[in-house]
Amino acid sequence: MLGETYSRIVGSDRWSAYNWLDRWRRQLCWAHLRRDFQALVKRGGESADLGAVLLTQVHQMFALWRQVRAGAGSRPAFQEALRAIQTQIHALLVEGAALTQPKTRHLCQNLLKLEPALWTFVSVEGVEPTNNNAERPLRRAVLWRRRFGTQSSQGSQFVARILTAVTTLRLQHRDVLDYLTAACAAHIQGAAPPSLLPAQTI
To answer: Are residues 142 and 126 in the same domain?
Structure first.
């Protein structure tokens, strides 16, 4: 859906489907990473020690981020303060990549390969360290599924499409009824439907 020429920054988890993206045009979600590090703690042994220290660094990082986001500090000061955390997390990932526990080792090796994507939000203003803003709109679909569900594959397809359209339009502050009216008119006339993409990304 993004297309081969997409040049903006994508916030995502570590799913391999995103590996085609340039690491410098990507921001890994720190909310997901925090859960990964919590899983290390639950794993026990040397993984638990590593996970605990990583979580401490993440906690400090989010504390600094909340300050700069609230306007309590300058961005250059934030970037300077974060350097020590970046250095520490790098060292911890290198340490984890040499551990004997396979899952822990693989996680750390993977994060080292994607390391530039950990810190895009530090250097690029406007980029968030999590993709919570993207996942929050999915809540409507989750509630629909729990409360109503569907009775057929066609019904499931309709729900997926209508919720995608409504959520996308609302995020762009576009009128839902105007769009759906135009889409229905285009279908009747055999014309191309109006785009859901913002004009600047087409």
So the answer is: no
